[in-house]
Amino acid sequence: MEKHVVVIFPHPDDEAFGAAGTIARFREQGIPVTYLCGTLGEMGRNMGNPTFATRESLPEIRKEELIAACQVLDIDLEMLGYRDKTIEFEDRQQIAEHLLGYLNKLKPSLVITYYPGYAVHPDHDAFGAAAVSAVSQMDQADRPELWALAIKKGKEADLGEPDLQFDITATFTQKFEAIIAHKSQASGILGGINQGPGSLDQIVRDKLSHEAFYKWVF
Q: Whole-structure pTM over 0.90, yes or no?
């Protein structure tokens, strides 16, 4: 059993769409989970549907949504203060050292982050690479296992099938509630998933009821 799980993603809602079912499973086992969230997603294009946010109000709205989602999942939250859509231009080693400070303090047995190069968004790839670098710099005796989330289409051609594939049907309710907590983003993203007949929650359940990760080999 894990002793502490640290999730490292750059944006509010990354945790909800990418790993919330798995996070909820850990919490059901009584395992503490801490989310290191890089930015507030303040440059996101979604402003709610119907629109209720502005470019000026979006950062605070997304912050409130992030806090609400973490409350749904019953996890600790650390907001790291990076600027949305600029992480790829930050010094990679400085970010890694920032993350390493948290990891040395929290001493996780498992870290979950994006798979660099297979995470679609430049922020995803850059923050995932910094997280991998941070874990690699830990003493081998203290180094946690690392699970990497790859979301690029066709990833299997390069990476093979994911090492871990979880049916998170049992914790899907928590996952869906965490997604919906990100109200400004959820309608736009779920609208893209909502293709075909059926209720939205059932369509989302069918498409998002599995979470898969690759085990990173150092």
A: yes
